[in-house]
From TrEMBL, chain A:
Belongs to the FAD-binding oxidoreductase/transferase type 4 family. Gene3D superfamilies: 3.30.465.10, 3.30.70.2190, 3.30.70.2740, Uridine Diphospho-n-acetylenolpyruvylglucosamine Reductase, domain 2, Vanillyl-alcohol Oxidase, Chain A, domain 4. Keywords: FAD, Flavoprotein, Oxidoreductase. Transmembrane segments: none annotated. Its EC number is 1.1.99.39. It comes from Xiphophorus maculatus. Its cofactor is FAD. Residues 545-554 have a biased composition (Pro residues). This is D-2-hydroxyglutarate dehydrogenase, mitochondrial.
TrEMBL record, chain B:
It comes from the Eukaryota. Its main location: mitochondrion. GO terms for biological process: amino acid catabolic process; fatty acid beta-oxidation using acyl-CoA dehydrogenase. GO terms for cellular component: electron transfer flavoprotein complex; mitochondrial matrix. It holds the Pfam family ETF. This is Electron transfer flavoprotein subunit beta. Heterodimer composed of ETFA and ETFB. Identified in a complex that contains ETFA, ETFB and ETFRF1. Interacts with ACADM. It comes from Xiphophorus maculatus (Southern platyfish). Keywords: Electron transport, Mitochondrion, Transport. Residues 25-217 form the Electron transfer flavoprotein alpha/beta-subunit N-terminal domain.
Length: 571, 254
């Protein structure tokens, strides 16, 4: 049995109770994890959240609660004084912030705080530091790896009310805004001024820019405008002790010392709370075309990509793909009709430029070439806003269609481009009839595959078949087990499939440096055995680590690649 | 029976674009704004192409009145399956004052010249919402009209049209030649597929001037002012019923 279960007497009672139902032990643990509650213990159900459906002995099990303080009446009084009317304890209102968008993980926080200024965030964090209260920063709560919601009763610190645009420079295109601005609102603001945001993703209606930066979100425009590591010029971050770190520069070039903001980009909230962002925005293109093409084989798709880069080059702004299974889900669940005939693979290509005649000429040449060389079997072009939106929705709404198909297991993998679809076909073969749908889609132009598997309900046996098969497969080709979604809670135990032990050890040191008491976001990014190693301070807040849950088998390594010692989860 | 269908297609500001009124209140900003085919005209083209695919008509001719850019709109119709296009050149001041009466005179003249059996138009344009061109064209030609069509069936030399009216659906039978105007539920316009887009580049678009058709473009209408609708005022929250009554009295509503 895991360390997790050894601590609670109540748990043993409930186990005995359930065992009378005649279930074998392994299923018992699974049932408990799935339901997160049992007849005997309300406290137990509060202490364990809905894990990702893994069996208790899998690395996906819920971590143990650290001994941080519980919220008292005095604490609430302080919060209510600091944030009048914005310290929420009404369970109905806190409920939605406790659960992620996929409804796959749920915490049991009782306090939701909504600051409006950086100063308020600083006051809250320094108070929580002094009281040893754990805090969970939350933006739009659209993350897909369970990183945005509390695991236990951490206080939720929402940036939703920090939604002011601070300044916009029309000449340089530099936008400065608070972290709680919704991405779509920023896009609309900029479009009126003839600019656009350098990133775009399906969750734009809800996701906030602070969260985007904390996740180092990729999105549909990365191919053209690059990642947030290049476009974010400055950040304002509040550290765990309430100290405000003002790195909110608006300069393109500034080589004075270490570039600290890069630490926070992609840190998933573990190093500090981002409160303001300054970002470089590109001009709104005068001419946008979207092409929806159909290909017979993935090989032809890749050749089309090469042709595309050659003939469309500098006007190419997106190259996405989806497979026929995705189309089937869009047709079935969202009633979106296929704009062209049925093909095994579909490509969405977007061009953005400053001259519509020049762009349509290039596009027509490319399409003519693609059709005559039979790389593409069918397709359609859109130049009008309304049609462009419709064609994009074929790609952007696949995530939504999947939620209607059943319980979804989501994977976001970076691989060498030619290997991308091989993972999907291998997974289909590996799972056989056990999965309802296995679909592949994503930013093929960036070498990023979104592999999703659905089943009618949470199925631990299915999960055990998928993981670690998928991670081992990825490690075999030196890919990344999380290209853009981050590690969050769900993938924290798999970091070693893509990063070496010394690297992760240094990351742990940074975490301890910036959050010595460990009250900021915990149980994200790092696996438990790593946390136990980053005990920089033997203070009483450092828990005795549970017996480390090892990855179920060491990753397979390709011959001649890095040595085995880098990848073992246990020493 | 030539089996020829004329389809009118209008180039309008794309419906997804945010409209802005010009600073001098004489009209809306059209420069640099995305334009596309009027959605009801798309439905009209789709219906004509469907009739051709069913071999009920022999040729589909797409017609548009406007400046040089109207040719793009005709090309879209050709990519959807029209056989050839006619671009009636109207630009500058004439284009600014072009309205249903002039367009219907042009369509009537073309119908006679091309010996058309059927004219299909969209029920209205989304920029002026006039809903007049179809009706006026039928009157000028003295042809029957099937407007707001949600279903069209060719039956020998007659046409059965199901019309969407306020009270529900009305079915009428009219003689050919006739004018039809398409309503939203008539069909779902197809996406122009690549092979058709490529083919469309080779199809012919003829250039015609209104004077060649003997049409006088002078308008009898003058636009006085164009302005934004009034901004929606924010609402007010009140705590008690007394407050509500007080505020209503203040505003002179009770």
């Amino acid at each position: 049995m895991l360390g997790v279960f050894q601590t609670t007497q109540k748990l043993r009672t409930s186990l005995r109770l359930l065992s009378r139902a005649g279930l074998p032990p392994v299923d018992l643990q699974v049932q408990l994890l799935l339901r997160g509650r049992c007849p005997q213990s309300a406290t137990f159900s509060r202490e364990l959240h809905l894990g990702p459906g893994g069996s208790a002995s899998s690395p996906a099990a819920a971590p143990q609660r650290l001994p941080f303080s519980r919220v008292t009446v005095e604490d609430l009084t302080f919060f209510r004084k600091t944030l009048p009317g914005r310290a929420i304890t009404d369970p109905d209102l806190v409920q939605s912030s406790n659960e992620d968008w996929l409804k796959s993980v749920r915490g049991s926080s009782e306090v939701l705080l909504r600051p409006q200024t950086t100063q308020e965030v600083s006051q809250i964090l320094s108070y929580c530091q002094s009281r040893n209260l754990a805090v969970n920063p939350q933006g739009g709560n659209t993350g897909l790896v369970g990183g945005s919601v509390p695991v236990y009763d951490e206080i939720i610190l929402s940036t939703s009310l920090m939604n002011n645009i601070l300044s916009f420079d029309k000449i340089s295109g530099i936008l400065t805004c608070q972290a709680g601005c919704v991405l779509e609102n920023l896009s609309l603001y900029l479009e009126e001024r003839d600019y656009i945001m350098p990133l775009d993703l399906g969750a734009k209606g809800s996701c906030q820019i602070g969260g985007n930066v904390a996740t180092n979100a990729g999105g549909l425009r990365l191919l053209r405008y690059g990642s947030l590591r290049g476009t974010v010029l400055g950040l304002e971050v509040v550290l765990a002790d309430g100290q405000v770190l003002d790195c909110l520069s608006t300069l393109r070039k500034d080589n004075t010392g270490y570039d600290l903001k890069q630490l926070f980009i992609g840190s998933e909230g573990t190093l500090g709370v981002i409160t303001a962002v300054s970002i470089l925005c590109p001009r709104k293109p005068k001419s946008v075309n979207v092409v929806f093409l159909g290909c017979e084989t993935f090989d032809q798709l890749l050749k089309s990509f090469q042709l595309c880069k050659g003939m469309l080059g500098e006007i190419l702004s997106a190259f996405e793909f989806l497979d026929s299974e995705c189309m089937r889900l869009l047709n079935t669940h969202l009633k979106l009709a296929n704009p062209i005939s049925d093909c095994p693979f579909y490509i969405v290509i977007e061009t953005s430029g400053s001259d519509s005649d020049h762009d349509s000429q290039k596009l027509h040449n490319f399409l003519e070439e693609a059709m005559t060389s039979l790389l593409v079997t069918d397709g359609t072009v859109a130049t009008e806003e309304s049609k462009i939106k419709t064609l994009w929705s074929m790609r952007e709404r696949v995530t939504e269609a999947l939620t209607h198909d059943g319980f979804t297991y989501k994977y976001d993998i970076s691989l060498p481009v030619e290997r991308i679809y091989q993972l999907v076909t291998d997974m289909r073969q590996h799972l056989g009839e056990r999965a309802r749908s296995v679909v592949g889609y994503g930013h093929v132009g960036d070498g990023n595959l979104h592999l999703n598997i659905t089943s009618s309900a949470k199925d631990p046996a299915l999960l055990a078949s998928i993981e670690p098969f998928i991670y081992e497969w990825t490690a075999k080709f030196q890919g990344s087990i999380s290209a853009e979604h981050g590690l969050g809670l769900k993938k924290r135990n798999y970091i070693y499939y893509s990063k070496s032990r010394p690297t992760v050890a240094v990351m742990g040191k940074m975490k301890t440096l910036l959050d010595p008491k460990g009250l900021g976001v915990q149980w994200r990014v790092f696996p438990p055995c790593q946390r136990s190693r980053c005990a920089g301070e033997p203070g009483r807040w450092r828990s005795t680590p549970p017996s480390p849950s090892p990855p179920t088998s060491p990753p397979q390594l390709a011959a001649g690649s890095r040595t085995a010692s880098h990848f073992h989860g246990i020493e | 029976m030539s089996g020829r269908v004329l389809v009118g297609v209008k180039r309008v500001i794309d419906y997804a674009v945010k409209i802005r009124v010009k600073a001098d209140n004489t009209g809306v900003v059209t420069d640099g704004v995305k334009h596309s085919m009027n959605p009801f005209c798309e439905i009209a083209v789709e219906e004509a192409v469907k009739l051709k695919e069913k071999k009920l008509v022999k040729e589909v001719v797409a017609v548009s009145c406007g400046p040089q850019q109207s040719q793009e709109t005709i090309r879209t119709a050709l990519a959807m399956g029209a056989d050839r296009g006619i671009h009636v050149e109207v630009s500058g001041k004439d284009y600014e004052t072009l309205g249903p009466l002039q367009v219907s005179k042009i369509m009537a003249a073309l119908a006679k010249k091309e010996d058309a059996q059927l004219i299909i138009l969209g029920k209205q344009a989304i920029d002026d919402d006039c809903n007049q061109t179809g009706q006026m064209t039928a009157a000028l030609l003295d042809w029957p009209q099937g407007t707001f069509a949600s279903e069209v069936t060719l039956d020998g030399d007659k046409i059965k049209v199901v019309r969407e009216i306020d009270g529900g659906l009305e079915t009428i039978k009219i003689n050919t030649p006739a004018v039809l105007t398409a309503d939203l539920r008539l069909n779902t316009p197809r996406y122009a597929t690549l092979p058709n887009i490529m083919k469309a580049k080779k199809k012919k678009i003829a250039n015609v001037k209104p004077a060649d058709l003997g049409v006088n473009l002078t308008s009898r209408l003058e636009v006085l002012k164009v302005e934004d609708p009034p901004q929606r005022q924010a609402g007010m929250k009140v705590e008690t019923v007394e407050d509500l009554v007080g505020k209503l009295k203040e505003a002179g509503k009770v």
